[in-house]
Amino acid sequence: MPSTSHAPLLVVAAALQDARGRVLMQQRPVGKAHGGLWEFPGGKVEPGETPARALARELREELAIDVAEDDLIPLGFATDDAGERCVILLLFSCRRWSGDPRALDACELYWDLPHDLTHLPMPPLDIPLLAQLIDRHL
């Protein structure tokens, strides 16, 4: 039975979509959890942060881009409560940002249409998020 003594871990991610409809994925560094897998960029919500503020901060830290919180549109979520701590991953769509995304905290960046991303190996919570993204035809 999963532990319920800890508050859920809230994580945020972005489906950054360019003018051609392609979505950005980043490859996790080898040596980290899920190393070598492809994920939506994002990270943990820190105490006192809203999900949108946390995501804007994470995108600045990971990709060197600036995103207005108002440009982050809630898209879907996935949960994993099988481990020691429940993880809730919120996915936002984003079509506007300033700067050119650079892999500051990832091995590589990759752009493709949502339905063409299904071949990428991904962490377990990113898989249902990609399916949600495809279902919404973003």
From TrEMBL:
Q: Which cofactor does it need?
A: Mg(2+)
Q: What is its EC number?
A: 3.6.1.55
Q: Which domain of life is it from?
A: Bacteria
Q: Which UniProt keywords apply?
A: DNA damage, DNA repair, DNA replication, Hydrolase, Magnesium, Metal-binding, Mutator protein
Q: Which top EC class applies here?
A: hydrolase
Ranges where the Nudix hydrolase domain occurs: 7-135
Q: Name one Pfam family in it.
A: NUDIX
What name does this protein carry?
8-oxo-dGTP diphosphatase
Give the organism the record lists. Sphingomonas palmae
